[in-house]
Amino acid sequence: MAKRADARQRLLLEILAQSEDPRYLEELAQQLQCDSRTVRRDLDELQRLLQKVRNIEVRRGKVFVTRSEFSPGYFTSQLERNMPAKEAIARAVVRSLPDGAAIALTAGSTPYMVAREIRRTVVEGLPPHNLIVFTNSLPAFLELIAASVMTGVLGEIYSTEDCALHAPEFHSAFQPGIAIIGVSGLVFGAGVGLELFSHRAEEAAFMKQLLANVPEVIIVVDRSKLGNRHPWSFGGSVLHNKRVRLVTDRLNAEQREELDALREWLTRHGTRFSYEVAMDSGETTQGAGATG
User: Fold this and answer.
1) Three-state DSSP class for 41?
2) Is 252 helix (H, G, I), strand (E, B) or coil?
3) Beta partners for residue 77, in sequence order
4) What is the spatial distance between Cα 73 and Cα 67, in angstroms, rounded to a whole number?
5) I need a surface site. Which of 37, 60, 67, 200 has the fewest CB within 10 A?
6) What is the distance between the alpha carbons of residues 96 and 99, in angstroms, rounded to a whole number?
7) How far, in Å, are 70, 78, 91, 200, 228 from residue 161 at the CA level?
8) Which domains, from first to last, does the chain contain?
C-alpha cells in the first residue's frame, strides 16, 4: 500500500511539473486511477514536503538539504517533543468542534498541531465544516491558509522566539466563541484553581486580554507541561464564569483526583470544568466533570 501511494504521488508530481495550466481534480483522479479525495490527500502530503525542503544538493558524497523552517527559539525547540501525544490531543479537540465555530487559536506547538489537524479534516472533507479560525501563530496561520480555512491574525508585534504575534493592548473586532490555547506550564488544585503559565511576560499579558471575553476555553497541553511553573502566569480568575476544558495525553490517579476536586471548587465560581485524556488510538477518556 505504501509503495503504491509513493508511486502515485511521484507520478502526480511529474504530471504537475509538466502541466502549464490548472488541472481538474477529477481529471487527475482518472489519470492516477483513484478517487478525487485520494488526490487531495496526495496533494496535501506533497505540499507539506515541499514546504519543509527548499533545496537538495550533493557535495563530496554528502546530501545537503536546505530547509524552510521557522525561526529558532522556544517554539521550534518544542515542536518535535512528544509529537504523537500532541497529535492525539489535536485529533480529540478538532473532532469535538461544532460546524461554523468561531475560534481563537493561540501560539504554541500543540495549538499548531490543532491547525494541522484542521487542515487534514478539510482535505479529507470531514467535519467540522465552515470554521472561522483567527490566530496569533504564524505557523498555524500558514496551515489554515493552505487549507482554505477562513482565517485572520490576532496580535501586532512579531516575536521570533514564539513565531507569534502579540500586542501590548489587544483589540480585535473578531469575537470568538471558543479559544484553543497552549501553555508553557499548568498547575491546578482545589483552592488554587487553574494557573496557566507562559515563558514570556508579553504572551501572558496578551493571553489575559484575549481570554477575558471568550465564553469557552480549551486548554491543550501534553503531560510534560503539567506541574511546570514559569514567572509569568495567566488564568485564575480570568477563567471564572466560563466553560473550561483541559485536554492532555496522560494523567495519573492522583492528578485525576485533584482535577475532580478542582471541578467542584470551580463550580462555585460559575466555571463549568471538564478534562479528558487523548490517546494515540484516537480514543479519549473523560473525567468525572466531563460533559458532552
Assistant:
1) helix
2) coil
3) none
4) 16
5) 60
6) 10
7) 10, 11, 26, 9, 19
8) 2-67 (1.10.10.10), 74-286 (3.40.50.1360)
Q: CA dist 8 to 14, 22, 53, 214, Å?
A: 10, 19, 20, 45
**Grid coordinates representing 285?**
477518556
Give me the half-sphere count of Cα atoms (radius 13 Å) on the Cβ side of residue 95. 12
**Residues 130/147, Cβ–Cβ less than 8 Å:** no
* C-alpha dihedral, 142 to 113 to 43 to 3, nearest 10°: 150
Cell 500500500 belongs to 1
- What pTM was estimated for this model as a whole? 0.79
pLDDT tens digits, the chain, 292 residues: what are they? 444 888 898 898 888 888 888 888 899 999 899 998 898 888 888 877 776 676 677 777 878 666 656 667 778 788 778 889 999 999 999 999 999 999 999 999 999 999 999 999 998 889 999 999 999 999 999 999 989 999 999 999 998 888 999 988 888 889 999 999 999 999 998 777 899 999 889 899 999 999 999 999 999 999 999 999 988 999 888 999 999 999 999 999 999 999 999 999 999 889 999 999 998 655 667 765 444 3
The number of helices, as runs of H, and strands, as runs of E, in the chain is 9, 15
Each residue of 35-68: b (16+ CB within 10 Å) or e? ebebbbbbbbeeeeeeeeeeeeeeeeeeeeeeee
**In angstroms, rounded to a whole number, what is the distance separating the alpha carbons of residues 162 and 150?**
23
Residues in CB range of 52: below 8 A, 6 or more apart: 67, 68, 69
Cell readout for 169 is 493592548
Place of cell 514536503: 49
Distances (CA, A) of 62 to 51, 57, 67: 22, 8, 16
